[in-house]
Amino acid sequence: MTLTRIEPALALWRGLQPRERLLVGGAGVFILAVLVYTLLWAPLQRNLEHLRAAVPKEHEQLVWMRTQVSQAQRLRGGAPSSGTATGGLLSFIEQSAQAYGVKAGLKRVEPDGANGARVALDGVSFNSLVGWLANLQKQGSVRVENATVEPQPASGIVNARLVLRGSGA
Description:
CATH architecture of the domain at 86-166: 2-Layer Sandwich
Number of helices: 4
Keywords: Cell inner membrane, Cell membrane, Membrane, Protein transport, Transmembrane, Transmembrane helix, Transport
Protein name: Type II secretion system protein M
Function: Inner membrane component of the type II secretion system required for the energy-dependent secretion of extracellular factors such as proteases and toxins from the periplasm.
Organism: Sulfurifustis variabilis
GO cellular component, one term: plasma membrane
Number of strands: 4
């Protein structure tokens, strides 16, 4: 600000009585304090409270993710990697089912044509089933030709009837 703009305000200030100066100065300090509180202090405190609530939740999620990394590495290492060439389609399906935790629900695996299989699973986790099917496609070039998936009363549990085809079909 230039001196020419300040001069009228100073002249007004000088024209006030000492008691009026005290009143105007006190009001100015009060207004300044309210502005500092509303524009700086209160938002900082709100953000701090939000961070104090969010950090423990994020830490829990980090711990969970770290435990999932070891499980993912274990599953990757346990999956058969040579596809249908080692022991045929039926044995590959059974080996892969063991690695992905759906072996207990595997009720029937039977041949279907030259390079196909009919598979029946009961009471398996839907997430495990999807992971297993993705592995079959990725590792063994096995595609799902037909699938019927029925939900069960327990959350996330399904029965499935599948027709799978190897890459040679």
